[in-house]
Design brief:
- It is a single chain.
- The chain is mainly beta.
- The protein contains one helix and ten strands.
C-alpha cells in the first residue's frame, strides 16, 4: 500500500533543482532527473547532513558534508562503498502541477 506523504509544487522544484520537503518523521530530498521527480530521505545516513543542500550531477547527489554519493533514483550509496547504508527511497509522481511523494507502508491486522 502507498500513501501520499507530501506534495510539492512542480514549478518550485523546477526553479530550485533540489528541494527539501519536511514531513515528520521524514525530511525528503526531491530532485528532477531527466524531467522525472525522484525522492530519497534528506538526512544522509552517514552523519545526517541535508542532501538537498548537496550537489546534483545527473542522477546522483553528493552529500555536502563528507562527499558521499547516492543515486537519486534508488537511494543506493555509490561511493564510498561500505561506510554507510543506502538512503530510503520514496515513490513520486506528477499530479497536475504538483509532485506527490508517497511512502510504502504495510498495514498489520491482528
Amino acid at each position: 500500500m502507498t500513501r501520499a506523504v507530501a506534495r510539492l509544487p512542480l514549478v518550485e522544484l523546477r526553479a530550485k533543482g533540489l528541494c527539501r520537503v519536511e514531513y515528520p518523521p521524514y525530511d525528503v530530498c526531491v530532485a528532477l532527473v531527466e524531467g522525472q521527480p525522484f525522492a530519497i530521505e534528506d538526512g544522509c545516513n552517514h552523519a545526517g547532513a541535508s542532501l538537498s543542500e548537496g550537489h546534483q550531477d545527473g542522477e546522483t547527489i553528493t552529500c555536502p558534508m563528507h562527499g558521499y554519493v547516492f543515486s537519486l533514483k534508488t537511494g543506493e550509496l555509490l561511493a564510498p562503498l561500505g561506510l554507510c547504508g543506502d538512503q530510503r527511497r520514496f515513490a513520486c509522481r506528477v499530479e497536475g502541477d504538483e509532485v506527490v511523494i508517497e511512502d510504502t507502508f504495510e498495514l498489520e491486522v491482528r
